[in-house]
Amino acid sequence: MKGIVLVIGGCRSGKSRYALELAKQVPGDIRIFIATCVPKDKEMEMRVAHHKEGRDKSWSTIEVPIRLPEAIIEYSRKSDLILVDCLTLWISNLILDNNDLDISEAALRLTKSLKDAQCPVIMVSNEVGTGIVPKNRLARLFRDAAGIVNQTVAACSDRVIWMVAGIAVTIKENV
Hints:
Number of domains: 1
CATH topology: Rossmann fold
CATH superfamily: P-loop containing nucleotide triphosphate hydrolases
Radius of gyration: 15 Å
Structural class: alpha/beta
Helix content: 40-55%
Strand order of the largest sheet: 3-2-4-5-1-6-7
Number of strands: 7
Largest sheet: 7 strands, mixed
CATH class: Alpha Beta
Distance between the termini: 11 Å
CATH architecture: 3-Layer(aba) Sandwich
Strand content: 15-25%
């Protein structure tokens, strides 16, 4: 597998499952799962538990709600593979942490860390821009920020996979 892969799609489209299957193709024993979720209710705790059950013992899980670019650089030095799940929760965390955030700058810092990573990185993200325009300001800010980050990460990715109903469709592949 080449360096940077983005797996993107809607909610419950099979993104995480596919990313884990893709990760099995990467040789090596040191695998880092970077979780960006900060569970704040019972339902999210159950989702996190379900995702953990889907990973075997070869994975070390690191929780990184905010400092994702720094974590990618740090853990890529001592890993065979990094899987980040997911970018949209990271974006949400950034917005809630700093409402005046310059998302373009955050996206550029992220892509620099991906390019500088010393192991392959698989990123999971939600495509949230295909629906209607949200009514409230925060939801619009989030939708727009996710679109900017997804475009920026896709541009620097070697491969981009669109997940639809559990089916992987490659929409970009650098050979």
